[in-house]
Specification:
The protein is α+β, with helices and mostly antiparallel strands. The protein has three domains: 196 residues, Aldehyde ferredoxin oxidoreductase, N-terminal domain (Aldehyde Ferredoxin Oxidoreductase,  A, domain 1, 4-Layer Sandwich); 181 residues, Aldehyde Ferredoxin Oxidoreductase Protein, subunit A, domain 2; 170 residues, Aldehyde Ferredoxin Oxidoreductase Protein, subunit A, domain 3. Helices cover 40% and strands 13% of the residues. It is built from 26 helices and 17 strands. The strands form five sheets. Strands 2-1-6-3-4-5 form a six-stranded mixed beta sheet. The longest helix is centred in the last third of the chain and has 21 residues.
Amino acid sequence: MDSYQGNILCIDLTTGRILRQPLDLSVARRLVGGKGQAAAILYKELPPKADPLGPENIFIFSTGPLTGTLAPAQKGIVVSKSPLTRTFCDSYVGGYFSQELKYAGYDALVLTGKAEKLSYIWIDNEHVEIKNASHLQGLTITQTALAVKKELGDNEVKTACIGPAGERLVRFACVGCDYRQAGRGGLGAVMGSKNLKAVAVRGTKPVEVANPKEFVKAARKLHKALVESEAVRATWTEYGTAGSVDFANSEGFFPTRNFQDGSIRGAEKLSGRIQSKAVRFRKVACFSCPIRCGHLLMIKKGPYAGTVVDGVEYETTGLLGANCGITDLDAVAYANYLCDELGLDTISTGGVIGFFMELFEKGILTSEDFQGVNPKFGNSKAVLELVERIARREGIGDLMAEGVKQASEKIGGRALDLAVSIKGLETPAWPPRGAPGMALALATADRGGCHERGWPIAYEVEGIPGPSGTVERLSLKGKAEIVKWEQDWLTAVCTLPCCDFSRTGLQPEHYAELLSLATGWKGGADEFMKLGERVWNLIRMFNIREGFTRKDDCLPKRFTGEPLPSGPAKGHKVTSDDMTKLLDEYYELRGWNREGEPTREKLIELELTDLVT
């Protein structure tokens, strides 16, 4: 089996049945692993239109052929149908959990059903056990991980846990894998719906590769390339993702007061540059990663002094910071800490709070609705209180826990025009009014509006040449081609699965070389990109089956109807006509019909017909 372990561990939490199924090599050869492997399982095994919070939903921890090897910058992946968007949802996490699952002998862990009472799963190589977790109810993610490790008598056990937010089925609850989070799409709520508090893994089995000598040589070469890359060092290693704050704010991309603007006065106080001086600072890395984008922070003074948090990433500074009108680094760091412990996605949490703050300031909701909280933009104490209420579904937090889309639909009226989400997923901190390519990428992203399914801003603003050369920032020309390229490339990387940050220093041919040496399969950069296209189309077919159509590839009214009020792209918006032109060109490039459905010819070309019929 080369770099695969050859086994998928399947657990039915309703019956307690535990099965080990052989890996389907015909599927693995076409879809490789990670995102591709999980997409095939979800499409084949999940009934159409299944309730994401029902026992029939499937929850997957998926590894890939490079997991647990010397390959640089590895990631883990969690997959299910999202309770927030009702789309296919894959959420990525660093740390060491996925590697431990691979060392235990499994290429994936597939969970179905619902346990009768709160439980956790213990995997120790071949020994698999469902254990009572009633005593863990209500614990935070860190408290849960420590309690499970103490109970099992091994501090080196790797854990994936949910906090109170997951237990209470907050639709954007995350999964905490020790000190990292699988944040997007509410997959923590899926675990909670299954009465599953945690998964603990210990593994001792080796991962072998097809060509050990050449694989080690290639892996070392790519580690060295990432370490020596000036782009990697400047973009990720020096200040982490928060190094993007100054750039985003100056270019009009920093979400401010529920995306009403793209910049905020005082944004520099949230930057990685300032973070490195304002708090105790230490770099941390995930498994086999030379990039070291993580930065362990400790708040030094004030009411939150002594709080330690694994970095305040760019997205968090944008959504829990500027989007709520806040530039107080300590307050944003503490809100980040609360989200990590309670088990909330910081992006969605900041998106929801910013939305409700605007509802309050425009008189759609009143002080009576908030019961003692004064949710004005800039009030950091209100943000912290609302984080707690969301996680426990207390008062107004119960409605906020539904997410922007579903909450806006329940409120109705003017709230619908102020809601900023795409396919139900709260928009990340790269709003698209000053970048039409980014608008297309967000609108067509498979799990809802997501910056990690393509980042055309690099081509539109930074001037990086696209597949057909450089493009103009506000022009529509060439943007569809860039978006398709980015989506295929990122999707292929996610089958390995590796971190998308590694793309800063590596190219498709580098990943293709590692994949070939690990598995023994032959293929270069073109085949690697075709792999990404294949998986992207499979997931598109899943979302179509779940009821999504062209009308869902759209942007909120804030981006199509309101011009950007400041920055280099001041006065610009992405109109509905712009989106129509972009989608028409994008669908044609993809080989889809005008409704955004892959044609029969495209499915045959990508060898997908047996998987989607």
